[in-house]
Design goal:
By secondary structure, the chain is mostly helical. The protein contains 11 helices and 2 strands; from the N terminus they run ααααααββααααα. Helix 5 runs antiparallel to helix 6 and helix 7 runs antiparallel to helix 8. The longest helix has 22 residues. The N and C termini lie far apart (40 Å).
Protein backbone atom coordinates (compact mmCIF):
# COMPACT_ATOMS: atom_id res chain seq x y z
CA UNK A 1 0.00 0.00 0.00
CA UNK A 2 1.32 3.45 -0.86
CA UNK A 3 1.63 6.13 1.79
CA UNK A 4 -1.12 8.14 0.10
CA UNK A 5 -4.44 6.27 -0.28
CA UNK A 6 -6.45 6.70 -3.45
CA UNK A 7 -8.97 9.05 -1.91
CA UNK A 8 -6.34 11.44 -0.62
CA UNK A 9 -5.34 12.52 -4.13
CA UNK A 10 -8.43 14.43 -5.11
CA UNK A 11 -12.19 14.63 -4.91
CA UNK A 12 -12.56 13.04 -8.33
CA UNK A 13 -11.48 9.71 -6.87
CA UNK A 14 -14.22 9.50 -4.24
CA UNK A 15 -16.54 6.54 -4.70
CA UNK A 16 -20.10 7.76 -5.04
CA UNK A 17 -22.73 5.90 -3.06
CA UNK A 18 -26.52 5.99 -3.40
CA UNK A 19 -28.32 9.10 -2.21
CA UNK A 20 -29.54 9.02 1.40
CA UNK A 21 -33.30 8.74 1.89
CA UNK A 22 -35.05 12.06 2.48
CA UNK A 23 -36.02 11.25 6.08
CA UNK A 24 -32.40 10.85 7.19
CA UNK A 25 -30.48 13.81 8.64
CA UNK A 26 -28.80 15.63 5.77
CA UNK A 27 -25.62 16.11 7.82
CA UNK A 28 -24.88 12.39 7.43
CA UNK A 29 -22.96 11.97 4.25
CA UNK A 30 -23.28 8.41 3.03
CA UNK A 31 -25.61 5.49 2.75
CA UNK A 32 -23.32 2.78 4.08
CA UNK A 33 -24.59 -0.06 6.19
CA UNK A 34 -23.02 -1.14 9.49
CA UNK A 35 -22.03 -4.40 7.78
CA UNK A 36 -20.19 -2.44 5.05
CA UNK A 37 -18.18 -0.63 7.67
CA UNK A 38 -17.43 -3.70 9.76
CA UNK A 39 -16.20 -5.74 6.80
CA UNK A 40 -13.69 -3.03 5.92
CA UNK A 41 -12.75 -1.47 9.26
CA UNK A 42 -13.49 -4.13 11.85
CA UNK A 43 -16.18 -1.99 13.50
CA UNK A 44 -19.70 -0.97 12.55
CA UNK A 45 -21.72 2.17 13.20
CA UNK A 46 -25.14 3.62 12.54
CA UNK A 47 -24.46 7.08 11.14
CA UNK A 48 -28.09 8.13 11.59
CA UNK A 49 -27.59 7.98 15.39
CA UNK A 50 -24.54 10.27 15.38
CA UNK A 51 -25.01 14.04 15.39
CA UNK A 52 -22.10 15.04 13.16
CA UNK A 53 -23.72 18.47 12.86
CA UNK A 54 -22.42 19.37 16.33
CA UNK A 55 -18.90 19.53 14.88
CA UNK A 56 -18.82 23.05 13.53
CA UNK A 57 -17.40 23.92 10.12
CA UNK A 58 -15.18 26.98 10.02
CA UNK A 59 -11.85 27.13 8.15
CA UNK A 60 -8.54 25.39 8.57
CA UNK A 61 -6.89 28.64 9.69
CA UNK A 62 -9.50 29.37 12.35
CA UNK A 63 -9.58 25.76 13.49
CA UNK A 64 -5.80 25.82 13.89
CA UNK A 65 -5.97 29.11 15.78
CA UNK A 66 -8.37 27.66 18.34
CA UNK A 67 -6.39 24.41 18.42
CA UNK A 68 -3.22 26.32 19.31
CA UNK A 69 -5.02 28.49 21.85
CA UNK A 70 -6.54 25.48 23.60
CA UNK A 71 -3.35 23.37 23.52
CA UNK A 72 -2.89 23.22 27.34
CA UNK A 73 -6.49 22.09 27.80
CA UNK A 74 -6.25 19.50 25.01
CA UNK A 75 -3.02 18.12 26.44
CA UNK A 76 -4.29 18.09 30.02
CA UNK A 77 -7.49 16.23 29.11
CA UNK A 78 -5.58 13.70 27.00
CA UNK A 79 -3.11 13.08 29.82
CA UNK A 80 -5.78 12.95 32.54
CA UNK A 81 -7.73 10.36 30.58
CA UNK A 82 -4.58 8.21 30.74
CA UNK A 83 -4.42 8.55 34.53
CA UNK A 84 -1.87 11.37 34.64
CA UNK A 85 -2.21 13.42 37.85
CA UNK A 86 -0.98 16.75 36.45
CA UNK A 87 -3.54 19.51 36.91
CA UNK A 88 -4.35 22.00 34.16
CA UNK A 89 -2.37 24.82 35.90
CA UNK A 90 0.56 22.42 36.28
CA UNK A 91 0.40 21.55 32.58
CA UNK A 92 0.44 25.26 31.73
CA UNK A 93 3.43 25.75 34.01
CA UNK A 94 5.27 22.82 32.43
CA UNK A 95 4.56 24.24 28.97
CA UNK A 96 6.19 27.46 30.14
CA UNK A 97 9.37 25.52 30.84
CA UNK A 98 9.06 25.31 34.60
CA UNK A 99 9.39 21.91 36.27
CA UNK A 100 6.77 20.78 38.78
CA UNK A 101 7.95 19.50 42.14
CA UNK A 102 6.40 16.43 43.66
CA UNK A 103 5.43 14.87 40.31
CA UNK A 104 6.82 11.67 38.86
CA UNK A 105 9.18 12.19 35.92
CA UNK A 106 7.12 9.71 33.89
CA UNK A 107 4.08 11.97 34.15
CA UNK A 108 6.03 15.04 33.08
CA UNK A 109 7.48 13.09 30.15
CA UNK A 110 3.99 12.00 29.08
CA UNK A 111 2.73 15.60 29.10
CA UNK A 112 5.73 16.88 27.14
CA UNK A 113 5.39 14.02 24.65
CA UNK A 114 1.77 15.00 24.08
CA UNK A 115 2.83 18.60 23.54
CA UNK A 116 5.32 17.38 20.93
CA UNK A 117 2.64 15.33 19.18
CA UNK A 118 0.08 18.12 19.18
CA UNK A 119 2.68 20.58 17.95
CA UNK A 120 3.69 18.23 15.15
CA UNK A 121 0.07 17.83 14.08
CA UNK A 122 -0.40 21.59 13.99
CA UNK A 123 2.71 21.91 11.84
CA UNK A 124 1.56 19.24 9.39
CA UNK A 125 -1.89 20.77 8.98
CA UNK A 126 -0.42 24.25 8.68
CA UNK A 127 1.85 23.14 5.83
CA UNK A 128 -0.91 21.20 4.10
CA UNK A 129 1.13 18.04 4.72
CA UNK A 130 -1.30 16.10 6.90
CA UNK A 131 -2.45 12.81 5.35
CA UNK A 132 -4.51 9.99 6.78
CA UNK A 133 -1.74 7.43 6.33
CA UNK A 134 0.40 5.02 8.28
CA UNK A 135 3.39 7.30 7.79
CA UNK A 136 1.64 10.18 9.58
CA UNK A 137 0.25 7.92 12.30
CA UNK A 138 3.68 6.39 12.97
CA UNK A 139 5.22 9.87 13.13
CA UNK A 140 2.69 11.07 15.69
CA UNK A 141 2.83 7.84 17.69
CA UNK A 142 6.62 8.04 17.80
CA UNK A 143 6.21 11.36 19.60
CA UNK A 144 3.29 10.86 21.99
CA UNK A 145 4.25 7.34 23.11
CA UNK A 146 8.03 7.51 22.97
CA UNK A 147 8.42 7.07 26.72
CA UNK A 148 5.77 4.36 27.12
CA UNK A 149 5.35 2.05 24.13
CA UNK A 150 7.71 -0.88 23.76
CA UNK A 151 8.52 0.30 20.23
CA UNK A 152 7.10 3.70 19.36
CA UNK A 153 6.53 4.76 15.78
CA UNK A 154 5.91 1.25 14.47
CA UNK A 155 3.01 -1.19 14.38
CA UNK A 156 3.05 -4.21 16.65
CA UNK A 157 5.29 -6.85 15.10
CA UNK A 158 7.23 -4.48 12.87
CA UNK A 159 10.18 -4.26 15.26
CA UNK A 160 11.97 -6.84 17.32
CA UNK A 161 9.07 -7.37 19.72
CA UNK A 162 5.85 -9.17 18.82
CA UNK A 163 2.47 -9.87 20.37
CA UNK A 164 0.50 -7.37 22.41
CA UNK A 165 -2.88 -5.91 21.55
CA UNK A 166 -4.86 -7.04 24.60
CA UNK A 167 -7.11 -4.33 26.07
CA UNK A 168 -8.30 -4.13 29.66
CA UNK A 169 -11.92 -3.01 29.81
CA UNK A 170 -13.44 -0.69 32.36
CA UNK A 171 -15.74 -3.53 33.45
CA UNK A 172 -12.74 -5.68 34.34
CA UNK A 173 -12.70 -7.89 31.27
CA UNK A 174 -10.13 -8.17 28.52
CA UNK A 175 -10.37 -8.16 24.71
CA UNK A 176 -7.72 -8.95 22.12
CA UNK A 177 -6.79 -6.49 19.39
CA UNK A 178 -6.24 -7.42 15.76
CA UNK A 179 -3.44 -10.01 15.36
CA UNK A 180 -0.22 -8.28 14.40
CA UNK A 181 0.07 -10.11 11.08
CA UNK A 182 -3.27 -8.64 9.98
CA UNK A 183 -2.66 -5.02 10.98
CA UNK A 184 -1.48 -3.81 7.57
CA UNK A 185 -4.46 -5.44 5.86
CA UNK A 186 -6.80 -3.88 8.42
CA UNK A 187 -5.32 -0.43 7.83
CA UNK A 188 -5.69 -0.75 4.06
CA UNK A 189 -9.32 -1.78 4.40
CA UNK A 190 -9.96 1.10 6.79
CA UNK A 191 -8.45 3.74 4.53
CA UNK A 192 -10.18 2.42 1.42
CA UNK A 193 -13.56 2.43 3.13
CA UNK A 194 -13.16 5.75 4.91
CA UNK A 195 -12.18 7.30 1.61
CA UNK A 196 -15.67 6.62 0.29
CA UNK A 197 -17.25 8.80 2.99
CA UNK A 198 -18.02 12.30 1.75
CA UNK A 199 -18.30 13.87 5.21
CA UNK A 200 -14.88 14.46 6.81
CA UNK A 201 -16.52 14.34 10.24
CA UNK A 202 -17.71 10.79 9.74
CA UNK A 203 -14.33 9.87 8.27
CA UNK A 204 -12.49 11.36 11.25
CA UNK A 205 -14.62 9.75 13.94
CA UNK A 206 -14.74 6.46 12.07
CA UNK A 207 -10.96 6.43 11.90
CA UNK A 208 -10.68 7.10 15.63
CA UNK A 209 -12.99 4.21 16.47
CA UNK A 210 -11.50 1.72 14.01
CA UNK A 211 -7.88 2.53 14.85
CA UNK A 212 -8.59 2.35 18.57
CA UNK A 213 -10.26 -1.04 18.15
CA UNK A 214 -7.44 -2.39 15.98
CA UNK A 215 -4.70 -1.56 18.53
CA UNK A 216 -2.03 -0.92 15.92
CA UNK A 217 0.57 -0.08 18.59
CA UNK A 218 1.70 -1.53 21.91
CA UNK A 219 0.53 1.61 23.74
CA UNK A 220 -0.72 5.10 22.95
CA UNK A 221 -3.40 3.95 20.51
CA UNK A 222 -6.18 6.30 21.64
CA UNK A 223 -3.83 9.28 21.85
CA UNK A 224 -2.51 8.64 18.35
CA UNK A 225 -5.95 7.97 16.87
CA UNK A 226 -7.27 11.16 18.50
CA UNK A 227 -4.50 13.19 16.85
CA UNK A 228 -5.26 11.61 13.48
CA UNK A 229 -8.96 12.38 13.97
CA UNK A 230 -8.08 15.96 14.81
CA UNK A 231 -5.92 16.23 11.73
CA UNK A 232 -8.74 15.12 9.44
CA UNK A 233 -11.09 17.65 11.02
CA UNK A 234 -8.69 20.60 10.95
CA UNK A 235 -7.46 19.92 7.42
CA UNK A 236 -11.07 19.89 6.23
CA UNK A 237 -11.93 23.10 8.09
CA UNK A 238 -13.79 21.66 11.07
CA UNK A 239 -13.34 22.28 14.77
CA UNK A 240 -11.27 19.80 16.76
CA UNK A 241 -13.20 17.86 19.39
CA UNK A 242 -11.81 17.89 22.92
CA UNK A 243 -12.78 14.85 25.01
CA UNK A 244 -13.03 16.22 28.57
CA UNK A 245 -11.68 14.31 31.53
CA UNK A 246 -14.93 15.12 33.34
CA UNK A 247 -16.68 12.70 30.97
CA UNK A 248 -14.23 9.85 31.46
CA UNK A 249 -16.93 7.45 32.68
CA UNK A 250 -19.01 7.95 29.52
CA UNK A 251 -15.88 7.60 27.40
CA UNK A 252 -14.93 4.32 29.05
CA UNK A 253 -18.44 2.94 28.72
CA UNK A 254 -18.46 3.69 24.99
CA UNK A 255 -15.01 2.12 24.63
CA UNK A 256 -16.22 -1.04 26.35
CA UNK A 257 -19.03 -1.35 23.78
CA UNK A 258 -16.52 -0.79 20.98
CA UNK A 259 -14.23 -3.55 22.19
CA UNK A 260 -16.84 -6.10 23.22
CA UNK A 261 -19.36 -5.68 20.38
CA UNK A 262 -17.29 -3.98 17.63
CA UNK A 263 -20.01 -1.32 17.69
CA UNK A 264 -18.56 2.17 17.26
CA UNK A 265 -21.91 3.99 17.35
CA UNK A 266 -21.88 4.92 21.07
CA UNK A 267 -18.24 6.04 20.88
CA UNK A 268 -18.70 8.15 17.76
CA UNK A 269 -21.92 9.63 19.14
CA UNK A 270 -20.10 10.48 22.37
CA UNK A 271 -17.22 12.15 20.52
CA UNK A 272 -19.66 14.23 18.46
CA UNK A 273 -21.53 15.19 21.63
CA UNK A 274 -18.27 16.50 23.12
CA UNK A 275 -18.02 19.05 20.31
CA UNK A 276 -18.64 22.67 21.14
CA UNK A 277 -20.49 24.88 18.71
CA UNK A 278 -19.41 28.49 19.34
CA UNK A 279 -21.63 31.30 18.14
CA UNK A 280 -20.49 32.91 14.86
CA UNK A 281 -19.51 36.15 16.60
CA UNK A 282 -17.19 34.16 18.88
CA UNK A 283 -15.55 32.31 16.01
CA UNK A 284 -12.41 34.44 15.94
Amino acid sequence: MSDTPRWAVGSEQYVRRPERPAHVDASVSTVSTPDDARAATGVRWDATRIDFGRIRQTSTARSRFRFERSMPDLVWNAAALEGNTFTLPEVRTLLDGVTIGGKRIEEAEQVLALVDGYGRLDDLVGRGAFTLTKETSDDLHGRVARHEAIESGAFRGEGVTGGGGAVQLANGGSVEGVPQELLQERLEGMLDYLGTLRDPRERALGYFAAATRSQFYFDGNKRTARLMMSGVLMAAGYEVVNVPFARKYEFNQALDVLFTDDDATPLMAFIADCATTPAPEAAD
